[in-house]
Specification:
The structure is a homodimer of 264-residue chains.
Chain A: H1 5-14, E1 22-23, H2 25-32, H3 36-49, E2 52-54, E3 60-62, H4 64-70, H5 74-94, E4 97-104, E5 107-115, E6 129-131, H6 136-143, H7 147-155, H8 169-182, E7 185-188, E8 195-203, E9 209-218, H9 224-241, H10 245-248
Antiparallel strand pairs in A: 1-3, 2-3, 4-5, 4-9, 5-6, 7-8, 8-9
Helix pairs in contact in A: 1-2, 2-3, 5-9, 6-8, 7-8
Chain A binds a DNA duplex (30 and 30 nucleotides) through residues 3-5, 24-26, 35-38, 40-41, 58, 264.
DNA sequence: GCTGCGGTTTCCGCTGAGTGGAAGGCGGGC
DNA sequence: GCCCGCCTTCCACTCAGCGGAAACCGCAGC
């Protein structure tokens, strides 16, 4: 690990998590492993810039400026903004949960969750992560991810949440093939016994899967198959506004021809 | 301005705006005023940390990690999370716009906007800012802000958006007094001729105004007075979940002394 | 009151990390 | 071909970042 100022700054920021949304200076110092003095200076510089704020108890928390900045993230609020009307549609239909997630590393990151009052319990939180094999959106994202990632997840340990969690590699492999064939997934009681989710892929302008949309409803109260057209319609709508050729009816020749990432 | 690495880093990040959500290295260098080489190094360090990403054209954009981090901001997503169900209620009632904003500096910063398909046009964008005197939420926030801020806005130049914008200091002062008396505001055609907004204050655990909620509807299609109970009910609901004594009916002696939306 | 404790802030001399000019590479337009 | 804009690597100088030491502050317990 480098010891540049930049990396130290990010280390300081990384000490914030959903379990520690606000911290004292000493906590930051301990968690980051930086000497107190150093943490003090860095924190103050972040404070000057508005990246951090202090609450009335003197504890540090993520500042509003950082939140405004992050609102510019194309894969964050940008995507969410475009998808929102369709998410609303999904929410309206069940008044339970409508969710939008993207792939990052080996996790599904949740961009949005609209939930009804008294809806069934979910672990999801906006800005939070869940493993790919245990969630509807995760399975969809994994099914369309790089072969490499798929194999690594299939091979790796698969945490079991309930007795319905797909925890076997080969079973998972078949599951992913089914998802590619069907264009949706029903993930029933895989993360909590009380709920199931129906998810479908959202395509971006490069016609690759950019996100996944899902609904989560209580197990036993819905025939999940009736929710499939709803989710697929929402997914198609989102793909369309993202400019996906396959969803807008454009011929393949109009595809954008851009190269994948250039890792330096 | 200091020239610390930290401040340079933040300067780099500050070059991103909603007009420039993705930039080339040279653009960042020019806009930040940093030598190309320096910008290059800083940008790469931000890239390593996941604060920035590169898109398929090699342009830099705000990274997903930064967005996840910002989701921890108590005054950002934290507040939004608690307010969301009530915002949904407001949205349901008109299917136009439901908005949530907080005060920062001399601006209203919008935390959330739920909008119907085909709703009337608004300038609002999530993560964006608008001046206090021209918006419903802004007037509410200003009416309950420090005396100092109020006077500074009253004195300062008041940008006129339409002929209905409150652009006179004394008129604004009276307006603010009315808002404190009534507990809501109807801001009609003040920012665009086509729309009006109804807004009310949301109280935090310290019984000070923490945010403002509003709806925006097309001018002429609604009697704004009929929307007042709706907005006030939503505002009260939000105040309650934030733990505001005045909204929960608790005696002052039971006041919580810490912020409600970080209930450690 | 005094004492200890946990957290915060200021001070300051040493030094290696950050700096940025120079130069080379890449690609696209004419 | 040539030029131009953008990106990347290299490297020697020096000043900004570093962090130990010590003071400071508020509070709880004796």
């Amino acid at each position: 690990m480098t010891a540049s100022v930049s990396s130290r700054l990010l280390t300081v920021l990384r000490t914030f998590s959903h379990r520690t949304p606000s911290q004292t200076l000493s906590e930051i110092s301990r968690r980051s492993g930086l000497p107190l003095t150093t943490a003090h200076r860095l924190v103050h510089e972040l404070l000057q810039g508005g990246a951090l704020e202090r609450d009335e108890d003197g504890r540090y928390r993520i500042g509003l400026w950082l939140w405004e900045l992050a609102a510019l993230a194309p894969r964050g609020l940008g995507l969410r903004e475009l998808a929102m009307p369709f998410l609303e549609d999904v929410f309206e239909a069940t008044r339970q949960h409508a969710q939008l997630a993207v792939l990052d590393g080996a996790d599904a990151v949740f961009l949005e969750r609209i939930s009804g009052r008294g809806a069934v319990h979910v672990f999801t939180r906006v800005g939070g992560r869940l493993p790919l094999h245990a969630t509807g959106v995760g399975l969809v994202l994994l099914a369309h991810a790089d072969r490499e990632l798929q194999e690594s997840v299939i091979a790796g340990p698969l945490q079991r949440f309930t007795r319905h969690t797909v925890a076997d590699g080969e079973q998972l492999r078949r599951r992913l093939a089914d998802i590619r064939r069907d264009g949706y997934v029903i993930s029933s009681r895989a993360i909590e016994e009380i709920s199931l989710s129906v998810a479908a892929p959202v395509y971006g302008a490069d016609d690759r899967v950019a996100a996944a949309v899902s609904t989560v409803v209580p197990y036993g109260q819905y025939d999940p198959l009736t929710l499939v057209p709803l989710i697929r319609a929402a997914a198609r709508g989102m793909s369309r506004v993202l400019g996906a050729p396959s969803a807008s009816g454009l011929p393949k020749s109009v595809r954008r021809t851009s190269l994948p990432w250039q890792p330096n």
